[in-house]
Amino acid sequence: MSDSLHRPYIAIDGGGTSCRFALNAPGGMVTVRRGSANVFSAPDAAIETLTSGLAELAAQAGLNMAQLADIPLYAGLAGVTDAGSARLVADKLPCRHVQIEDDRRAAVVGALGLRSGCLIGIGTGSFLARQCGETVAFVGGYGAVLGDQASAGWLGKELLLRALLVLDGVEGSSDLVEACLGEFQHDAAQIVRFTVAAQPADYGVYAPQVVRAAKSGDAAGRILMAAGADYICKALVALGRQPGECLCAIGGVAAHYVDFLPPEISSGMMAPQGEALDGALELARRFAMQIWQEQI
Length: 296
Prior knowledge:
Blueprint: E1 9-14, E2 19-25, E3 28-34, H1 43-60, E4 73-77, H2 83-90, E5 98-102, H3 104-112, E6 117-122, E7 126-132, E8 135-140, H4 152-167, H5 175-183, H6 188-197, H7 200-204, H8 207-215, H9 219-239, E9 246-250, H10 263-266, H11 276-295
Helix pairs in contact: 3-11, 4-5, 4-9, 8-9
């Protein structure tokens, strides 16, 4: 453990919105923030963000790029779908020892620290996870087309679907649905046209309306939030959550489900211990220790 205090390592928390870099070195921590780095949707832009961010990190630490070569690097990046996509990115970076995976595990370790427990990560997209020791298991995280249940994007989609069903006379309306329909002049064709180019964030705009309506007793809002909460409960069962384990919520929507979860789950909610960059730093430290031990 003492070696970790004297040898540097690099951590990257690369999200679809922003990318944060940290170099833990004997002289102290150096951090840099850059733009988005989504390896799946914009691989070339992501690599540019990563390489320019590392160059700035090196400059702030008083190093040149060649000196980064022997520093172990861990990166949790949005859009990493498999080992192949991780390798493609790793090959473009200046460090010889690189570990790259998607951004979920860093978020889990950042929120839970060393504690065993579960994480509900629900913002525009969604995933759930359970940590036991250094093992992390996941549910979800499959993207907006086939997944992201309970997320802001999902709530928006479900609201628009319910609006269409109301227009067809299949479902009953509510103040929430009527307000949504009013934005589209009660015209199904306008709703369908909206969906042609809509991205998850566009659907997510409607999530705050759903949350507010549900908390004020709107029938449709409560149905949607209850459906999201039901998915969360099933996912926690699938993960094997044990009674009494801590439960953290991250993302702009996750905490709003607390009122819709059964007491045996909501009572276990605790504040996150840290952020995804904290998790990336811990994972970078573990990776660096592994590299150093192999070199002994």
